[in-house]
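Run DUF1611 domain-containing protein through structure prediction, thanks.
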Amino acid sequence: MNAPFGLKADTLALPQPYLLFLGDTVERGFAKTALGLRDWAPEKCVGELTLAGAAVTTGLPQLTPVEAYAQGARALVIGVANAGGVIPQSWRASLVEALEAGLDVVAGMHTRLSDIPELRETAALLGRRLIDIRVPPAQIPVATGRKRTGKRLLTVGTDCALGKKYTALALARAFAQRGVASDFRATGQTGIMIAGGGMPMDAVVSDFEAGAAEMLSPDAAPEHWDVIEGQGSLAHPAYAAVSLGLLHGSQPDVFVVCHEPGRTEMLGTAGYQVATIEEIVDLTLALGRRTNPNIRCGGLSFNTSALDEAEAAEVMWRESKRLGLPVADPVRGGPAFDALVDSCLA
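Sure, done. The structure for DUF1611 domain-containing protein is below.
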């Protein structure tokens, strides 16, 4: 793929452009792959395909696989990252239809495309490709904890699906615009599709999580920054393990806490309240010091998409004053985001 904003793309080549498949998704947070591709690689997206009952849209034209192929699409991308990464039976006829229309199928799910008989058989018959992104490399080593050269920034979160990828991409772009040598390091399926390479951290066996993070961000020049996409949350009852392994292996010098004002319940886990910003700052400092004693918080990234401009500005100003840290929405940008970048690079 092309590598926007100075990002590194050296391991992955996908058929493009894409038809984004949203299935019957009703939870916007689960559609983060499609939304991320729309926002960060719009030139690679020709339209979307949804099923009956879907309540989420990218805003792109609704196309059938045949129509998408006629408009240049060469792959259908499953744009959903649902709980467990499953491909339900209700989606499979549409995926077969895409193969029959001439499209390869790309997925970042835990369920392997080739493990579904009707997809495997149709792809083999028609000479189409089934491409799974969520497959880690072989022979990942156990982490050493050795301090590596170069500088690192990690995005962390009070919950899942609230802006860690967007924040890392925006910071990597801002660093590059300032002439700072940097690379975006993708750790999830959407980031990998955007950047063209990375490490699917949540598909790595737990004992090798930190080692995978060390592989992802190797020794670099002293002034070079790796901006590492975070995963999950240290406070999440289901996904904290991948967050901790990534934190230890990344050894970040700086972390940015990502948060969505107004979210009260953790995504996909009924009954668990979203962690507070202070809790995540304290946890990240306490656990991160194990592999980098000098770790510090560079500031906060807020997802204010549910607020109007005046409400967003007021919330970010208030929280910045309360916490004594810069707070910005990387999508809105502006002086607040400039201040966050300054703090990270300080």
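The radius of gyration is 20 Å.
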